[in-house]
Design goal:
204 residues; alpha/beta; Spore Coat Polysaccharide Biosynthesis Protein SpsA, Chain A; eight-stranded mixed beta sheet; 8 helices; 11 strands; globular
Length: 204
């Protein structure tokens, strides 16, 4: 298998617990781009990179046909942070790479670059388009107590977690030097954004 090259032990996590309200309630993970559901492509890529792959979802039946290990949120209706928490509880490795289920163009080279930066930081988070992308990032499983504390306090946003961590923010200038970064960072939240990348639900 084509693992990241620095020997880091990382579990791949697909976050698929959202309500997809901006997609009219349709499951973004099963929108098809290039004739393949986003979830199927992501799991295939993750299996080529990571020894263990988990889908954080409250609808495990949707993923049975893909042969995926699934885990449900302990904190329901608490957003992606609850999915990260659930995945960390079952991760077999000291780090997780997490990606949202609405990212149809994830690129192995970009993921490898982020994983290769694993060191003392609690998280490795890209900066992109003058913002940060915490759902295309690496987290140390040792921060699980901090994640749980945030959730218990009602702080459900990933951006509320980051100030509590030692974060290695990866500059956009560095990322633009890696082939496929713009594609890897792209997410599709609306039917219009899905259509713009040639995707649809009709193929899924």
């Amino acid at each position: 298998m084509d693992r990241p090259g620095n020997g880091a032990q990382v579990t791949g996590v697909l976050l698929a617990g959202g309500r997809a309200s901006r997609m009219g309630g349709r499951d973004k993970a099963f929108a098809a781009v290039g004739g393949e559901p986003i979830a199927a492509r992501t799991l295939r890529l993750f299996r080529s990179l990571f020894p263990h792959v988990v889908v954080a979802t409250n609808r495990p039946e949707r993923f049975r046909a893909l042969g995926a290990d699934t885990v449900a949120d302990v904190f329901p209706d608490a957003g992606p942070l609850a999915g990260v928490h659930a995945a960390m509880r079952v991760a077999r490795d000291p780090h997780v790479f997490v990606a949202a289920c609405d990212m149809p163009g994830l690129e192995a080279d970009v993921i490898r670059f982020l994983v290769a930066r694993i060191g003392a930081a609690d998280a490795i988070v890209p900066r992109w388009d003058n913002d940060v992308e915490p759902l295309h990032a690496v987290y140390a499983v040792r921060i699980l107590p901090v994640v749980e504390e945030c959730l218990r306090a009602g702080r459900h946003a990933m951006r509320e977690l980051l100030p509590l961590l030692r974060v290695d923010y990866v500059g956009e200038d560095l990322l633009r030097g890696i082939r496929g970064t713009a594609r890897s960072m792209l997410n599709v939240n609306t039917p219009e954004e899905l259509a713009a990348v040639g995707g649809s639900f009709d193929e899924a």
